[in-house]
Amino acid sequence: MSLGPIRGENLTALLEAFTLDTVRNMLAVESVDVRIYHNDLPDQRRAAKLAIETTSKRGKSDNPKLSVHERARERWGLRIEAVFQDCFEAGYKHALMIGNRTPTITSHMMATAIRMLKESDAVFGPTPEGRYYVIGMSGSSKIDLSKFDWTSAHIYSDVAHAFTEKKLSWSELEIWYVIESADDLEIMVRDINQYRFEGDEESARHTETVMERLITKLEP
Fold first, then answer.
1. Pick from 5, 14, 36, 83: most CB atoms within 10 A?
2. What is the mean pLDDT of each run of 10 residues along the chain (220 residues)?
3. Which domain holds residue 117?
4. Distance between CA atoms of residues 8 and 49, nearest Å
């Protein structure tokens, strides 16, 4: 991921804001639990701790809907498969996985994904590049996700085809984006401005605050 002049501590702060906004929006969806999975890296531990402090009362881990789970670093396919398996072993019938680089996904969009997931074996949220911003599974991990090349430009069609071959049902969300480049940041800022124009003052609020600070800081 390259965000132009945003790097180092500034990039860390922005990624933390992405995480906070994603967690906050998930917590706004009724009747869901939010499980934060992160690698055993200091920056990711800090982001998870900050999410707890920001969204829980008195800065303590007292929100019954929110829990944090640390996993060792491994390649992406193994990581996705392990997270889904962990959720199903914990007793959940539906699991929706959202990365930490999609801060403009609203709670309404998340609620729609969960509603669709309850009627399908899976739900996929495609990006313009042919990848994912959301993956959901129902009942169990019916596909071996670790066998796919998640760096492939056609990973979306590969996984969807695997579901179709097994005659499993799947639903598709609207196309959205994951923050990968400075160009994606421009799209994100435009979306945030549109939310504010429509009267939505909460979506991506932490991201907006950090972006405003960085723009001021990085101005020549």
1. 14
2. 83 92 91 91 86 68 80 87 93 93 94 94 93 90 85 89 92 94 93 96 94 81
3. 8-214
4. 19
